[in-house]
Design brief:
Number of strands: 8
Number of domains: 1
Shape: globular
Number of helices: 2
Distance between the termini: 29 Å
Strand content: over 45%
Helix content: 10-25%
CATH topology: Nucleoside Triphosphate Pyrophosphohydrolase
Length: 152
């Protein structure tokens, strides 16, 4: 079985009680909200990854203000030719603040829209689970940089 490690960096940007999110196509159709961020290029520092990805997906220039923690996701998924891939995703979550640029949608990328959402409304959005994990890291600020999964 093929093994794949993907390291990505994401940012929690909160301003005036609102969270910055990007919208991405969902696997089963429709769309879901995601944290702005994405995969790290070979040789790139994760801090630089999140700055680059935020500009690509939202139009904003950001300054990283803190490391909130990490999330690790491991599962086996279908790949191709009846094969599966053992996927391990390491997601580094930063806190960042907007220092320039203007909100815009990404063109030709992995997302199609960027928008601010009131923090109180986020739980009602169709979203990826990483958003909930990142908000817990942002609120709780655990010294170990990890929160236990929410009970199902």
């Amino acid at each position: 079985m093929r093994k794949k490690l993907r390291v990505a960096a994401y940012a929690v940007c909160v301003r005036d009680g609102q969270l910055l999110l990007a919208r991405s196509p969902a696997a089963g159709g429709g769309h879901e909200w995601v944290l702005p961020g994405g995969g790290m290029d070979h040789g790139e520092h994760p801090n630089d990854t999140v700055v680059r990805e935020l500009e690509e997906e939202t139009g904003y220039h950001v300054e990283v203000t803190g490391l909130l923690g990490m999330d690790s996701l491991h599962h086996v998924v279908p790949w191709s030719y009846r094969r599966k891939v053992d996927h391990h995703g390491l997601r580094i979550v930063y806190e960042a603040r907007i220092v320039g640029g203007e909100l815009r949608d990404e063109v030709g990328g992995s997302t199609d829209m960027a928008a601010w959402h009131p923090l109180d409304d986020v739980s009602g959005l169709t979203r990826v689970p990483l958003i909930d994990t990142a908000l817990r890291l942002w609120r709780e600020r655990p010294s170990v940089g990890r929160v236990d999964p929410a009970p199902k």
